[in-house]
Design goal:
Blueprint: H1 7-31, H2 37-44, H3 48-51, H4 60-72, H5 76-92, H6 98-107
Helix pairs in contact: 2-4
GO molecular function, one term: lipid binding
Keywords: Disulfide bond, Lipid-binding, Signal, Transport
Family: Belongs to the plant LTP family.
Length: about 130
């Protein structure tokens, strides 16, 4: 069965489709705005040799990652997610020295607003 559409009906359908696509894109961008563990891991990967004592100097790429991650974590929810991911990452890396890890943001000139420690309650990070 064929449906006949007038020019104005077609324009209405196209306009509605555009609105639906725009709304979906907006929704998707707000959902994807949260910090992911993938972002945390890739941002901080250059820091691992320093955090494990395999490098004596803090690489510039580590500080770049720390700064980028700090800039990306704009909301309390982002910072809490980054905190949880950091703890997970620290647990997965053998020989990580959490004392050294805790000094990295300061050495990079970044204030993260919460202590870098395995005992930090990430749910209380604001």
């Amino acid at each position: 069965m064929a449906v006949l559409m007038t020019n104005s009906s077609r324009k209405t359908v196209v306009a509605l489709a555009v609105v639906v696509v725009a709304a979906a894109a907006l929704l998707a961008s707000s959902v994807s705005a949260a910090i992911t563990c993938g972002q945390v891991g890739s941002s901080l990967a250059p820091c691992i040799p320093y955090a494990t004592g395999k490098a004596t100097a803090l690489p510039a790429s580590c500080c770049t990652g720390v700064r980028n991650l700090n800039s990306a974590a704009r909301t309390s929810s982002d910072r809490q997610a980054a905190c949880r991911c950091l703890k997970t990452l620290a647990n997965s890396v053998k020989s990580v020295n959490m004392g050294t890890v805790a000094t990295i943001p300061g050495k990079c000139g970044v204030s993260v607003g919460f202590p870098i420690s395995m005992s930090t309650d990430c749910n209380k990070v604001s």
